[in-house]
Amino acid sequence: MKNIYEVLQGPCLTEKASILQEVTGKVTFKVNPDANKIEVKRAVEKMFDVKVKNVHTVSVPGKEKRTGKAIGSTRKWKKAYVTLAEGTIDFTSEL
């Protein structure tokens, strides 16, 4: 089992994620690409002291970027949508 700080890389603070959290109670995290749903669930429950109902993961492919003649790509990463059964997580109060 991985350390919880290796599994969760940070919150995904986008406009879509904040609307999703307000309407459905789902919280979005950027997670390690090797992490599975069980590890994500345990990490969120341990770190934020909430009860997790469900976890959905999405592998986000890297986008092709171009700088002049050179063509490269951004990294691929993994996103987790965590549905909370009890409690809430507020990322904006820390800012």
Q: Could you explain how this protein is built, in words?
A:
- The protein is of the alpha+beta class and 95 residues long.
- It is built from 3 helices and 6 strands, in the order αβαβαββββ.
- The protein has helices spanning 4-7, 15-24, 37-48; strands spanning 8-11, 26-31, 51-60, 64-67, 70-73, 77-86.
- The protein has a 4-stranded antiparallel sheet. Strands 4-5 form a two-stranded antiparallel ribbon.
- β4 (64-67) and β5 (70-73) form a beta hairpin.
Descriptive labels:
95 residues, alpha+beta, two-stranded antiparallel sheet, 6 strands, 27% helix
What proportion strand? Answer: 35-45%
Mean pLDDT: 91
Radius of gyration based on Cα positions: 15 Å
Tell me how many strands there are.
Answer: 6
Structural class computed from helices and strand pairing? alpha+beta
The largest β sheet comes out as: 4 strands, antiparallel
Give the distance, in angstroms, between the N- and C-terminal Cα atoms.
31 Å
Q: What spatial form do the alpha-carbon principal axes imply?
A: globular
- Low-pLDDT stretches are none
Q: Quaternary arrangement of the chains shown?
A: single chain
Fraction of residues in helix: 25-40%
- H/E element sequence: HEHEHEEEE
Number of helices: 3
Q: What is the topology, as strand order, of the major beta sheet?
A: 1-2-6-3
